[in-house]
Design goal:
Blueprint: H1 3-12, H2 23-38, E1 44-47, E2 50-53, H3 55-67, E3 70-74, E4 79-83, H4 84-87, H5 96-102, E5 105-106, E6 117-118, E7 123-124, E8 128-129, E9 134-135, E10 140-141, E11 146-147, E12 152-153, E13 158-159, E14 164-165, E15 178-179, E16 184-185, E17 190-191, E18 196-197, E19 202-203, E20 208-209, E21 215-217, E22 223-224, E23 227-228, E24 232-239, E25 250-258, H6 261-267
Parallel strand pairs: 5-7, 6-9, 7-10, 8-11, 9-12, 10-13, 11-14, 12-15, 13-16, 14-17, 15-18, 16-19, 17-20, 18-23, 19-24, 21-25
Antiparallel strand pairs: 1-2, 3-4, 21-22, 24-25
Helix pairs in contact: 1-3, 2-3
């Protein structure tokens, strides 16, 4: 029986999955978590120009919470209580050789959970990376930024300080939040609910974008939902209520122009930080 079929069959009886489940199922779930950790598989990928969710992988992540018990972890200033496979991070017990092989830079106090992938030459400042997240090569996750569960972040991106890329672990069929290659996400911004930020886009500081957020092209007036077109420069804005012009305006995101050399000079990544 294929790995995908084993997971899907278990999902149909998920209420019966427990630490006492058959070893074959537990081994299959663990294989998925390990493959996510190594980058062999990912929750979503772009196939023929379209982002596709691998539902069985998301199901395996959720089932892993059923097969592992809660455990305690004591530290020097606190203790923690969580599912046993997630208490210790991705890099627990790594040696210098392990870090050199992985090839990314990770400063102290950067919790990265087992089952997430971080590509070579990435830089993790004190940030948080959840299970199922995929951080591609050369990307910086800056101080206090967050990559939510199953979020997909492309190559050479900068997720600025305090920003969040929301995870979408459930429902299983839902597309996770996706940041494509070469995106700059400004400080203290939030992109959530499976929104796709197109390649090369630049989002200003303090952007908040979900599926219901109107994304308005200032030049054409076209309104987008759930996806920022590639190479867009986006800033916060407001739209008046057409039915009540004297009423309060509502928040929106505004595409003010396409990325140009001037924009890139202000937002390009610094290779010196990745050596």
């Amino acid at each position: 029986m294929s790995l995908e079929k084993i997971i899907n069959n278990a999902w149909e009886k998920k209420d019966q999955v427990s630490p006492n489940s058959e070893q074959n199922l537990k081994d299959t779930i663990n294989q998925v978590i390990n493959d996510l950790d190594s980058g062999k598989v990912r929750v979503a990928e772009k196939i023929k120009g379209q982002w596709i969710t691998h539902q069985h992988i998301k199901k395996a992540i959720m089932l892993s919470f059923r097969i592992y018990p809660m455990e305690n972890l004591s530290g020097p200033y606190s203790s923690w209580y969580d599912k046993s496979h997630l208490l210790k991070g991705k890099t627990a017990n790594w040696t210098k050789s392990d870090h050199e092989k992985a090839g990314f830079r990770m400063v102290p106090n950067s919790p990265v959970r087992k089952g997430s992938y971080v590509g070579k030459n990435a830089v993790l400042m004190p940030c948080y990376v959840n299970i199922g997240a995929y951080i591609d090569e050369g990307t910086m996750i800056d101080t206090f930024a967050r990559a939510g569960s199953c979020s997909q972040i492309g190559k050479n991106c900068h997720i600025s300080a305090g920003s969040g890329v929301g995870g979408v672990l459930e429902p299983a069929q839902a597309l996770p939040t996706i940041i494509e290659d070469n995106v700059f996400l400004g400080a203290m911004s939030e992109v959530v609910e499976g929104v796709i930020v197109g390649e090369g886009s630049v989002l200003s500081m303090g952007m908040y974008i979900g599926q219901s957020t109107k994304i308005v092209d200032r030049k054409t007036g076209k309104i987008h939902y759930g996806k920022i077109p590639p190479y867009s420069v986006v800033v916060p804005g407001t739209l008046p209520d057409k039915n009540n012009p004297s009423g309060p305006s509502l928040y929106c995101a505004v595409i003010i122009k396409q990325v140009d050399e001037k924009t890139r000079s202000k937002t390009s990544i610094n290779d010196l930080l990745r050596d």
